[in-house]
Amino acid sequence: MSRSHDPYAAFRIHDYRLYVLGWLLAMIGTRIQSVAIGWEIYQRTGEAISLGLVGLVQALPMMLLALPAGVLADRYERRRLAMFSLLGMTATSLALAVFSAIQGPVAWMFALLFLDATAMTLGRPARVALLPQLVPAEVFPNAVTWNTSLMHMASVGGPAIGGLIIAVSVPSAYIIAAASSLWFVLILTRFHFRPAERVDGAPLWDATQPQPAIWQTLVAGLQFVWDKRILFTLMSLDLFAVLLGGAVYLLPIFAEEILHVGVTGFGYLRAAPAVGAFCMAFAMIYLPPMKQAGRALLLAVAGFGVATILFGFSQNFYLSWAMLFLTGALDNISMVVRQTLTQLLTPDRMRGRVSAVSSIFIGASNELGGFESGLVAQWFGPVFSVVSGGIGTIVVVAGATLLAPPLLRLGALHEAKAETE
User: What is the DSSP string of 385-405?
Assistant: First the structure.
């Protein structure tokens, strides 16, 4: 191990340790609640379309409110916004527990899910933009890598814990989710933030100065991402990779009709991308920092496309699992590079709005990717849907390589800095 590379650099910062403790528990609570709501809604309605409505109800607030949430994150104190967001999530989780216990109307549970997603959306840009104020720039890539590793740990462990909990009591799952959100609120009260690195010495929002029109403020994040072409390319790569490589949405078909492994095999296949992502994130903690992050990103997204194609053609369970494992591992590289550069190349006064734009790119691609995969599979079959998506991902990488040469020349992540205005 290189003496200059410290895998635990971020954890040597007290406030980051506090942040991770609260954030990880809140993330696990969210995953537990997600398992519980899906199970309960399906058990009470018996309709598969109800599960689709669960996703739609949770996606709508992100589509509608992400940009305003970014403006809030750049206008008001971010810690306080994050705390209000978490308190809203705590309240909706407790309400879900009550409605679950008394078997309240399903329509009201959908309404509570919408409110829960609204609270989460309004606080997410503020929470994301807090991280650069907890760790210095040279440690930030290590912090992002740890965050992604722990996120995938929550994605694997949360549903497993949730399954055990709902086997005993479904309302308990919502109560645990509420407790985890409230715990994060208490953690946030103990932070000591580093001074924000202003590019012009100005506060987040100076009320004494003339302010741009509301519409200009809302689209400022979009304009910044477009002008900072490397960020636009990064987000577009992630968007199209997920949009075109939506094999995970068709896993029930592959498990039943192609691999013939039933519900147990489906569970293993569903976990494979998260396991791969966790393993890659953990490996990246110990590996030396990337010296050519742009090239690594392009190769990772291209590899994601190749693994998707091989999964589509595979009729062997073990090969299929391995290819899904690879998609998760390679997608994690893309996630680390994108999240790190999005924060480090953005002036602090814009971080909330740019984080909101990023959430729209990535969140939208997840939902639309499932729709695209299902639509193509309906017309041409699941194998064609997955394979064509993988080929499309490789084509997108080739286009990005030709049209955005600065991305290919991108060096070490920790050297990225926001331009001084």
Answer: HHHHHHHHHHHHHHHHHHH-H
